[in-house]
Design a protein that fits this description.
This protein has about 425 residues and is α/β, with parallel strands linked by helices. It has ten helices and 19 strands. It has two domains: about 270 residues, no CATH class; about 55 residues, no CATH class. The protein is about 25% helix and about 40% strand. The strands form two sheets. A ten-stranded mixed β-sheet has the order 2-1-5-7-9-11-13-15-17-19, with helices on one face. A nine-stranded mixed β-sheet has the order 3-4-6-8-10-12-14-16-18. A hairpin with a 2-residue loop joins strand 1 and strand 2. Helix 2 packs antiparallel against helix 7, helix 8 crosses helix 9 and helix 9 runs antiparallel to helix 10.
């Protein structure tokens, strides 16, 4: 039985397992739409460089076992040295309060499942839920049909959350390949501020397929930062769709650090819904063996006097394959737009490859927009300079690669996260660097 057939066959049982049923009609409609669309193939323009057969030809369990035996030592290894953070821990889809630490006040924080069961939050969900996620994509419809667990946070007007919040999605103790549909909803009201870190971790040898959808709403003069730390094992697949809508004078950042996972697809869509908006997207990808990481970004400049900045760096070894497709759309009324997009890549082996395609669609005439991409190897002159000073070839290469990737994380405000990314960079590049 194909995965598509499994999805259709299991849906009624999934619906019957839910305590909340007010989304049933939406879920059934989404499943019907998914059934009509089907999984993307390489014949689809948006997936011409990313073959999903490895994912879609496997069988999965749609109802993960809830019990786990994660030790404190295992969990501590996932932390960033973040004693002063808050963290939310989901294990096998379920929120575990005993593993979480939540000190934030004056906000509405709930697990997605609880929020759906709470009548007083129904109005919030009807106003925000699934309003900016695309209705035309296979994976967003699949997520709506099956989403049950995830993270919901509403930050009220002028509330500044000082501590970053780390959301952990952990899978462990599963005997079969497991399918998760996680859902995140972040609402940052006027003048508010919050930073979120999201990471996924598979502790088993069985495969995990996670289909994640995140919706971020940033209101006037608010600031929302979402950091995706992707460093899972080689039996993990992740398809992530993140949608961010910004109102005037707001700032939203999504940083994506891709170091692990067998196949990772990141779709990032920014919608600017006012003037004087700043949108930032940064990414670092370091992969090897036969891993694949695909970044697809889109920024919709719909109002004047706004800026967007995209800076993605990729380092590929072994038979790794990278994809970058960045799009910037500038509406005819979006005068004084300033949009920057850059994708730079280094290939370390003959088997590594990158398909990169930055795109601009501009309908305004008073704008400053630039885009570019580079694909190459390390600078031989710089290598010679370092080796002439007694540095080994391997270490010289690693130092140059570290410097190459480093500027894509300069806007991280969270020092423990920046240090963690630096350490992961050093580990991947096998170089000793003091922090």
């Amino acid at each position: 039985m194909s995965l598509k057939e499994q999805i259709i066959e299991n849906h009624n049982e999934f619906l019957e397992s839910l305590r909340h049923r007010f989304l049933d009609d939406d879920r059934k409609a989404a499943l019907q739409k998914f059934e009509g669309i089907g999984f993307p193939t390489k014949k689809d323009e948006e997936y011409k460089y990313t073959n999903l057969k490895e994912i879609t030809e496997k069988s999965y369990n749609f109802f993960p076992k809830e019990n786990h035996n994660i030790t404190k030592e295992q969990f501590d290894e996932l932390h960033l040295g973040e004693e002063n953070f808050d963290w939310i821990v989901f294990v096998n889809g379920k929120l575990h309060k005993e593993l979480s630490k939540v000190s934030i006040e004056n906000v509405e924080f709930l697990s997605f499942n609880y929020a759906l069961n709470d009548d007083k939050h129904k109005e919030v969900f009807e106003k925000y839920f699934n309003t900016i996620a695309s209705k035309d994509l296979a994976f967003t419809n699949l997520n709506l049909a099956y989403c049950k667990y995830g993270f919901f946070l509403k930050v009220p007007k002028n509330v500044v959350i000082e501590k970053p919040i780390h959301v952990f999605y952990i899978s462990q103790n599963q005997d079969e390949n497991t399918f998760y549909n996680t859902r995140n909803l972040l609402i940052v009201e006027e003048g508010a501020k919050v930073e979120v870190i999201e990471s996924h971790h598979n502790f088993d040898d069985t495969y995990v397929f996670t289909n994640s959808v995140t919706e971020i709403f940033t209101y006037p003069n608010a600031k929302a930062d979402w950091h995706k730390l992707q460093n899972d094992n080689n039996t993990s697949y992740l398809v992530d769709n993140t949608f961010a809508r910004q109102e005037k004078d707001s700032l939203t950042t999504v940083n994506t650090f891709s170091f692990g996972g067998k196949l990772v697809r990141n779709n990032l869509d920014f919608i600017q819904n006012g003037s004087n908006i700043n949108s930032f997207m940064n990414g670092i990808t370091i992969i090897g063996k036969d891993q694949l990481v695909d970044h697809h970004t889109a920024v919709h400049h719909n109002f004047p006097n706004c800026e967007s900045y995209q800076n993605y760096k990729g380092i590929f070894d072994g038979n790794a394959h990278g994809v970058f497709n960045g799009k910037v759309f500038v509406d005819k009324i979006a005068q004084k737009t300033n949009a920057y997009q850059q994708n730079n890549n280094v290939l370390l082996s003959e088997g590594a490859s990158i398909d990169t395609k930055p795109q601009l669609e501009i309908f305004a005439d008073d704008v400053k927009c630039s885009h570019g991409c580079t694909v190459g190897q390390l600078n031989e002159d710089a290598l010679f300079y370092l080796r002439a000073r007694g540095i080994s070839k391997k270490e010289a290469q690693a130092l140059l690669l570290y410097a190459f990737a480093n500027d894509a994380m300069q806007n991280i405000d969270i020092e423990p996260l920046k240090e963690k990314i630096s350490k992961l960079l050093a580990e991947k590049l096998e170089v000793d660097i003091e922090f």
